[in-house]
Amino acid sequence: MQHHKKNSPKTKRPNISQYTVKEPAELLPFLLHKQSNLGRNAVKSILARGQVSVNGRVVTEYNCPLVPGQTVTINKDKVAEEPQLVGLTILHEDEDIIVIQKDAGLLSIASPQENEITAYRQLTSHVRSKDPKGRIFVVHRLDRDTSGVMMFAKSEKVQQLLQNSWQESVKDRSYVALVEGQVKKPEGTISSWLKESSTLKMYSSSRPNDGQHAVTHYKVMQSNKNFSLLEVHLETGRKNQIRVHMQDLGHPIVGDKKYGSRSKAIHRLGLHARVLAFVHPTTGQLLRFESTIPKSFLNPFRQSPS
Predict the structure, then answer these.
(1) Beta-carbon-side half-sphere exposure of residue 245 (alpha carbons within 13 Å)
(2) Which one of 77, 96, 143, 210 is the catalytic residue?
(3) Model's pTM, two decimal places?
């Protein structure tokens, strides 16, 4: 006896409903009326998942105006298109924050002149694929050519909470920097007042209170006569702080032409945000995110085969 045939799947009818619009309406009330067996939240999530189209075009806005003669299609089999993330990986996401690892080369957010793809823009699409009203708020930035861990807020309230308590909330913000030359002191602290020149380049002033106070701590992890790999802790987070301070130290970051580097040893900037540890703004929990040191940073220290 062959029992196994009983479980063979029946050809499933596609789960598609089509309606013709008879009178002007907004999309959400129209769907609630047509799908009266579903609750409001269920209909909202069908919309958010991109399963509703009007005349063949996917629409997610609740208040999309409908006019007589249009065709509204609901396809519950359609899997939501999660936008592809380019140059970043999400490490953590909850109702309040998103923590990512950013690749070198990706802008955190665009300046008014630039219209290219950014971490900010991609994460906005990502949250909107689940909630059409979703938004993203900038908490801190990484330079375009710096890779590593960074965080965004999902509401203005959380952004404010984080920015107002940044010094207390952030328990560890450490980077690895590949710099030119052999750093002699195994560890040290650089302290200066940072200012911005008319060409938007930051520089250190030795005059107290002349600019923004910046403090950087470093430890040598590995070095040879050409390069040093440093672990860098920020006490303050000023624009280009580590890059200026490494130049001040006489050991500019590899690939940082703007701040004195002549080496292109790794074909990118030798700066990576390795650790971000902070107290969660609403749960109070201590979260810690650590990303691996880019392999290219370690290449200068590999023994060359004899």
Answers:
(1) 27
(2) 143
(3) 0.73
